[in-house]
């Protein structure tokens, strides 16, 4: 009788270890995903800070252009800005606007940009 109890206890312990191993594997995957997302956000943050510094250094130029145009924007300027954002790796479509494209082309964005161009 004692041998049977001991064997049951060992088998139960083995099942618990397997369950913990599965949980640990899921936790490792989650941590890897979070690290990848963190790295992408760091890269995007660095890119945005660099872009902001460029814009701030050119602030006087922008102010002069706005004053010259009398605060009216050219119709093509909005399209140019969206096209630039797309080239910098961001979505411009209504589905994923502003999120990173991660280097892949987006059919929604391309369709939107082609409509604007026509």
UniProtKB/TrEMBL annotation:
Q: Which organism is it from?
A: Lysinibacillus xylanilyticus
Q: List, alphabetically, the Pfam families matched.
A: YabA
> What are the protein's UniProt keywords?
Cytoplasm, DNA replication, DNA replication inhibitor, Metal-binding, Zinc
What protein am I looking at? DNA replication initiation control protein YabA
Q: Which domain of life is it from?
A: Bacteria
Q: Which NCBIfam families match?
A: PRK13169.1-5 (NF009644)
């Amino acid at each position: 009788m004692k041998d049977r109890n001991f064997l049951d206890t060992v088998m139960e312990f083995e099942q618990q270890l397997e369950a913990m191993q599965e949980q640990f594997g899921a936790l490792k995957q989650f941590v890897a995903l979070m690290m990848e997302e963190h790295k992408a956000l760091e890269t995007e943050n660095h890119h945005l800070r660099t872009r902001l510094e460029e814009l701030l250094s050119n602030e006087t130029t922008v102010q002069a252009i706005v004053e010259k145009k009398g605060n009216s924007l050219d119709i093509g300027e909005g399209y140019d800005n969206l096209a630039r954002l797309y080239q910098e790796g961001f979505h411009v479509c209504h589905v994923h606007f502003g999120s990173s494209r991660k280097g892949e082309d987006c059919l929604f964005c391309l369709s939107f940009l082609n409509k604007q161009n026509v």
